[in-house]
């Protein structure tokens, strides 16, 4: 069965690139424009992985990750975050919030896909 | 494939730049506001990240440096200063340039970007009191390929923390990844297991050792653990070159290790003899999934504006056709058709409303330009001015907003230049040295009212009157109300300043403002009080292409009056009105001036029996229009007039009627305005 990916990013162009790449690979894709928007998809439906940006209005990536980790249904779901910072601090913060891994922007489609297959198969 | 999204990125980046600019201007007045700083940081961050993704490397590089400043601000290491704001605003212009041209090619451009970056870096350097120290670029973890052609065997010990499963990591995948690098044997070890009753499903009590034979460099092995390196003990040791897995002695060691639950020791492995064998190349794991269209939900989307124009246009056509259908249905008297026509009318109205709602955009999107103007201009002139906005969320047809910008810029420029005084002057007048320009927008019926209010020195009506007399625009003996005097400003040939100032003298007078606002069926008026300030009021329709009109007949022709301006209709017996003196008619206790449309449009024929007085609200007056017949309410599509009729003073457009005839749309405000002037002249 096709895996469902929830992508969350306030940048439309990034959303489109991710969405296009993933659909091409046969993933089901749900799209949220920010953390707040993403929460509406977390209504019990089956989602295999969340890919979220960190800097977003309303509810940012860290906030989203923390919220997801409190939800019984999604407590242990893999979450990757998109980041441009290679600084350890940002990554540590997101990891501590409960992220599974990260994808460094800029990325090429192959890198995105390999990051995903690192955590879901 | 990235190119495909490049346009989208530029469009979005421009939005980000816009947002950035807006936030910066807000920051200027509210320098500690964390939300604003976050917003700025976020916009820069998107520009940087997106820039790098979509091949705008210079942009990404540049924003990176800029972002550093705001990262420092965000972390309290740096205070927002005038210099930072000015430099960032300057940077915004540079970013726009970069978005336009892509990466810099011209060597001069490259030099100037370098100089610019240095300026940005200096902000941080000065704070540090150290010479400019370049922040390292964020390095993507691209693994450096080691020049190593030989294959090697590794012993990898991997001991995850108990909590590793919690955050969605699956250690088996990591073992799989190692397998994918070459040939591998994985040995599991159980750490001290708790009692069964204490055992938690979500805890990991397992560790692994993997013997891997691979051609991949060690960094690629490390890369497998990149997400979990902080949550695991990982130890990667090279055993030797060549493949240890083919060594028969290895089996003994491994078996011993498993039965004793004791990890393998590197030195033990290194002592056994290895044979060289061919590397097993990495196998493709996982077959490609089919490309299928999947369910994909987006809560909002961006549409090209010409598509919306087209939609509105089509809806307009539909509304016209629907009106024809209605007319036909009513005339036919056939119940089925009438019912159908009614339904279509209902639907097309909804469709029309929807289409229009789509084409409305909030004023907000343009306000920042005004804000920037006030800021830059007041700085140039040495004035201190706050630009306060209220009602930025008010929505208007995008065509109206587009046409509104230039006149608005002019009006605001006027307020900054002529309205608000210099700080010293203000102090003398007992005002605070800082002036305010207040931008206020609100709905009023089907119109939108925009007011630009400054607390400057105001305009002296007497001065305007004298000027108008001097210029021969009015007669010296003419008695004028205050409002009428301020209206003189809009006459062409009127300019209150003799010397053209550098700021406002751009060849656009208030007459042009008035005309431009008139072109979008708007009205503009000025009110002012000496010493207190000036208020410019714009009244604008919400949309341009469709109006609810009142269809009237004058002579042979039909005309449309926007219903929003109609107050009341009175019917009179034929010739009652025509026989009145002075064009004043008493209704009840009130007297109304009126304009006979039959005279205006030179219509000879009259309809026997009765004539109609339509009371129109124009600005603050009520004026009657006389027509032969009122046909009824009529929703109509306004089409612009062609070249020959465009300059007509009182007609703002035309509409195609159900029967194919053309009805002109009367611009009541201008009609009344021009008739008033005409009468004044003849008097």
TrEMBL record, chain A:
Residues 4-120 form the Response regulatory domain. The modification 4-aspartylphosphate is found at residue 53. This is Two-component system chemotaxis response regulator CheY. Keywords: Phosphoprotein. It comes from Breznakibacter xylanolyticus. The lineage of its organism: Bacteria, Pseudomonadati, Bacteroidota, Bacteroidia, Marinilabiliales. InterPro entries: Bact_response_regulator (IPR050595), CheY-like_superfamily (IPR011006), Sig_transdc_resp-reg_receiver (IPR001789). GO terms for biological process: phosphorelay signal transduction system.
Automatic annotation (TrEMBL), chain B:
Residues 1-102 form the HPt domain. It comes from the Bacteria. Its EC number is 2.7.13.3. Residues 313-544 form the Histidine kinase domain. PROSITE patterns: CHEW (PS50851), HIS_KIN (PS50109), HPT (PS50894). The modification Phosphohistidine is found at residue 45. The keyword ATP-binding applies. One of its GO terms (molecular function) is phosphorelay sensor kinase activity. It catalyses: ATP + protein L-histidine = ADP + protein N-phospho-L-histidine. Residues 546-677 form the CheW-like domain. GO terms for cellular component: cytoplasm. PANTHER family: CHEMOTAXIS PROTEIN CHEA, SENSOR HISTIDINE KINASE CHEA. Involved in the transmission of sensory signals from the chemoreceptors to the flagellar motors. CheA is autophosphorylated; it can transfer its phosphate group to either CheB or CheY. This is Chemotaxis protein CheA. It comes from Breznakibacter xylanolyticus.
